[in-house]
Amino acid sequence: MLLSTLRVPIVQAPLAGGSSTPALTTAVVEAGAFGFVAAGYRKPDALREDVAAVRAATDRPFGVNLFVPGAATDASVYERYVASLAGEAGAHDVELGEPRFEDDAWEDKLALLEADPVAVVSFTFGCPPAEVVARLHAAGSEAWVTVTSPREAAQAIDAGADALVAQGIEAGGHRGSFVDGEGGDFGLLSLLALLGADNEVPLVASGGIATGRGVAAVLAAGAHAAQIGTALMRTPEAGTSPAHREALATPAPTRVTRAFTGRQARGIVNRFMREHSDDAPAAYPEVHHATAPLRAAGRAAGDAEVLNLWAGQAHELAPERPAAEVVATMAAEASAALASARAALGDR
User: Which domain holds residue 141?
Assistant: First the structure.
């Protein structure tokens, strides 16, 4: 089990959609933690290049994260919402994208990872079929599945998952629920308690962990490692846009919305979220493709009011420091916090 070999019990979240870079993954694994390359939204050839870039930079193990494809949404569900965004597109001098369904090159990416295995393949947005897990095991990879409820955890275990990434409601970015809106809204510590009571599959805790004390808390709650995402988004190695970096450093509130992609995701509240969340349907990836040109225009213009500013609830604590320093500091803080807890319990 890879988790038992880590020098530092920290996992870098995949951070698909911009912040993920080979440089970030490399820096994290070189610091003794574990890192992921995000396959989501990447073409197979681009994913192959990212994996090759990490391999060229380090001989340490790393993983790749895949999106499990869902089902197409009937156009009647999202047509009115997409039409309502015409004014936004006009204001930014772009055309909305085609609200189409696609499976993110699922089979091609699986084939790539069978031919060129990595240490771990993790999954978000669903539970991979047992035969997919078996294929990855045969290639020598572990399979980790992101879950947001005990019901999803049971499915993942039945499919042969080697570890569960327990995602609390505090987490930034997309909810990893198998079906949008039907997962759990559990806080991370509650979810860890429920999952730990029902099974012995190793747990990776994810959601709102921004300090070493947070790492210590989830380790004490039964997790084998803490997964951090937002805490790494202001590092120089991350591909986070300037406007997004600036927003992360503020105490702005976050909320869960479907406005940007048609799937529940937590981000910093901005104008677009306020004006469009109430009408946004559950229609992923159709809405994602429709709004993609608008969001790209916002990034190019530095307009934080139209961007999807994905962020966990503790985003303002994300440091602007190199990734290796973030990992080392969090590890040292976690060790000190656990020692303090032992002292408080009288274990001197």
Answer: 1-69+104-239+320-348
pLDDT value, residue 50 = 98
Q: What is the pLDDT of residues 99-111, one digit of tens each?
A: 999 999 999 999 9
Task: Tell me how far apart the alpha carbons of residues 280 and 25 are, in angstroms, rounded to a whole number.
Answer: 33
pLDDT tens for 148-201 read 999 999 999 999 999 999 999 999 999 999 999 998 899 999 999 999 997 899
- For the stretch 259-312, pLDDT in tens is 999 999 999 999 999 999 999 999 999 999 999 999 999 999 999 999 999 999
Task: Answer positive or negative: Cα dihedral of 147, 324, 66, 242.
Answer: positive
Nearest to 16 by CA among 162, 176, 148, 165: 176
Strand bridging mode 254-257 / 265-268: antiparallel
Evaluate whether 204 touches 163 at the Cβ level (below 8 Å): yes
pLDDT for the residue 347: 58
Closest CA to 337 of 206, 193, 214: 214
Same domain for 141 and 56: yes
**Statement to judge: residues 178 and 278 lie in one domain:** no
- Tokens 């656990």 belong to which residue? 338
**Count of C-beta atoms within a 10 Å radius of residue 342:** 11
Q: Are residues 17 and 36 in the same domain?
A: yes
Give the number of other Cβ atoms within 10 Å of residue 154's Cβ: 15
The answer to whether residues 287 and 144 touch, using CB atoms and an 8 Å cutoff, is no
Domain count of the fold of the chain: 2
Dist CA 320 CA 97 (whole Å): 34
At a CB cut-off of 8 Å and minimum separation 6, what does 212 contact? 329, 330, 331, 332, 333, 334, 335, 336, 337
